[in-house]
Amino acid sequence: MSKSSIAVDIGASSGRLIHGYVEEGKLKLQEIHRFENKIVHNGENFCWEIDKLFDEIKNGLKKCHELGIQPDSIGIDTWAVDFVLLDENDHLLTDAVAYRDPRTDGMMEEVFQTISKERLYLETGIQFQKFNTIYQLYSIKKNNPEILEKAKTFLMIPDYLNYLLTGVKANEYTNATSTQLVNAFTKKWDHQLLDHLGINKGMFQDIKLPKTVLGGLKQEIVNELGFDLDVILPATHDTGSAVVSVPETEGTIYLSSGTWSLIGVENHFPICIMKALDYNFTNEGGIDYRYRFLKNIMGLWMIQEVKRNLGDQYSFAQLVDLAREADGFTSTVNVDDERFLKPDNMMEAIQQYCSETSQEIPQTAGEMAKCIFDSLVISYQSAIDQIEEIYEQNFDRVNVIGGGCQNELLNQLIAEKTKKDVYAGPVEATAIGNVAAQLIALNELKDINEARTMIKDSFEVKKYTSLIEER
Ligand SMILES: Nc1ncnc2c1ncn2[C@@H]1O[C@H](COP(=O)(O)OP(=O)(O)O)[C@@H](O)[C@H]1O
Ligand SMILES: C[C@H](O)[C@H](O)[C@@H](O)C(=O)COP(=O)(O)O
Ligand SMILES: [Mg+2]
C-alpha cells in the first residue's frame, strides 16, 4: 500500500487540507477541508486567529477519519515572517500579530541606525519588507521590552502549529530565512546580528530542514482524533512549497500568485549583489538548500480587498468578467506603493492614487478590477526585466502557480505584456509541493527531480501566448 500525506496549506486568505498520494505513476490530490483565513483586530493589533486555524486543522483531520483515510503524515505550511513567543511555561506571550500590523512602522529605519542596509543584505540576502520578523522583534524590544525579556521560545506560525500537534519545538529553514535573521551563507541563525540588535538569541530553536520527521502527535491529540500520524516538515514557508511544484525551473520565471505575487527564479546560490539590493530581491531558502531569488509584489490582496469593500457581492470570476467589460479603462497605480499594504478601504486608496496622478478615477467594480490587473502586470514586467538584467539572460516562460492562475484575463495580460509563453498551473501548487516533500521523506518519491517529473505528468497546465504581434 503506497504511503499518503496530508498537506495543510494556510495562505493569508484561505486554508486547505489536501490528501496527496501516488497512484499509477501520478500524483493524486483529494481536497478534504477548506476554510477562510483573515486578519482580525484584537483591540491592540491586527492578528491571525491562530486558535481557530489549529481547530480547523483538527477538523480536517477528523474529516479524514470520517472518510476512512489514514494518512501516514501531515505537513503544515503558511505565510512567512510571523511568529509567536512563549514564556518559560510555554504560554503565549502575545496573540499571533499579523505582518500587516502598523507596529513595524519606522522600525526598519531604526535598525539601519545600528547596522547598515548594505551589510544586512550582504549577510542575509533578504528583501527589505517593513514587516520582516527582524523589524517585528525590534518593535517589541522597543515598545514592549518586558515581553522579549520573558520570551524563552520563538516559533514561526507553522512551527507553533507543529508544536501544538507534537510538543516539539523547532524552526524550519525555509521560513526562518524570511525573518532576515538567518545568514545566507552559514544558513544558521545569525547570532552576531541578534547580539548586535540586542535580541535574545537563546529563544531561537534549532533550524530543521524540509523532509525532517518531527515526530508523532501528542497523546491528547491522538485521543481527540482517534489516530496518530507523523508530522513531517515540508518547506513550511508556503511559497517555498509552491516553488517545489514548479515542474520546469530551468529557463522559467515562476509567479506564485495568491494574496501576494511572488515572482522569481530558483537558484543554487544566493545573489547578494548591490543591484539585487537596489531592486529589492530576496534569497529566501528553498528545499535542499536551494534559493528562491524573488520579490514580493502586492498581489491579489488588492482585488480581495475590493471584493470585500463591495460586500462580497461578486465572486472573483465575476470580477474578472467585469474587468473584461471595462476594456477601455486605462488608469493604473503603482501596486507596491505602501498605501496599498493595509488601507482602511482599498477602493478609496486606488481612487485617491488615480486622483493624485491625474488619471481617470475608477468608479465601477469592473474599472477597479481592470486597474488592479493592468497595474499588477506592469509590476510583473518590471520585475522580469530586473531579473533578466541581473542574470544577463532571457527567460523563456512564466509559470503562474497558485489560486491566481485561475485568472485567465490576468494570464493573458501577462503574455501580452511580456511576450513570453505563460503556463498557468497547478492551482494548488503549494499543497502539491508540501505533499511532495512529505512523500520524499516517506521514500514514496525518490527526490525533488522525480517529484517534479510526476507533477508535470499529473496536473493540467494551460498555456497562454501573446495574440498581439510585436511591432
Ligand atoms: N475562479 C477564479 N477566477 C479568478 N481568480 C481566482 C479564482 N479563484 C481564486 N482566484 C484568485 O486566487 C486568489 C487566492 O489564491 P490563493 O493561492 O488561494 O491565495 P492564498 O494562498 O494567499 O490564500 C484570490 O485572491 C483570487 O484573486
Ligand atoms: C509576508 C510574506 O512576504 C508572505 O507570507 C509571502 O512570503 C507569502 O508566502 C504569501 O503567501 P500567500 O499564499 O499568503 O500569498
Ligand atoms: Mg498561498
Biggest sheet character: 7 strands, mixed
Bound molecules: adenosine-5'-diphosphate, ligand LHFEOU2G, magnesium ion
**First CA to last CA: what distance?**
57 Å
Number of strands: 20
* Structural class estimated from helices and strands: alpha/beta
Q: Approximately what portion of the residues adopt beta-strand conformation?
A: 15-25%
Rg computed from alpha carbons, rounded to a whole number of angstroms: 22 Å
Please bin the fraction of helical residues: 25-40%
State the low-pLDDT regions, or none: none
C-alpha geometry: globular
Total number of helices: 18
- Adjacency order of strands in the biggest sheet: 16-17-15-14-18-19-20
What is the average of the pLDDT values? 97
Give a verbal description of the structure.
The strands form five sheets. This protein has a seven-stranded mixed beta sheet with strand order 16-17-15-14-18-19-20, with helices on both faces. Strands 3-2-1-6-13-12 form a six-stranded mixed beta sheet. The protein has helices at residues 50-66, 107-111, 117-124, 133-143, 145-150, 157-166, 173-177, 191-197, 219-225, 238-244, 274-278, 301-309, 316-325, 346-356, 365-391, 408-418, 429-441, 448-458, and strands spanning 4-10, 14-23, 26-36, 39-41, 46-48, 73-78, 83-86, 96-97, 153-156, 171-172, 207-208, 213-216, 230-232, 252-257, 261-267, 282-285, 291-297, 397-401, 421-424, 462-464. Strand 18 (397-401), helix 16 and strand 19 form a beta-alpha-beta unit. The longest helix is centred in the last third of the chain and has 27 residues, at 365-391. It contains 18 helices and 20 strands. Helix 10 (238-244) packs across helix 17 (429-441), helix 12 packs antiparallel against helix 15 and helix 13 (316-325) packs across helix 15. The chain is α/β, with parallel strands linked by helices and 471 residues long. The model has no long low-confidence stretch (mean pLDDT 97).
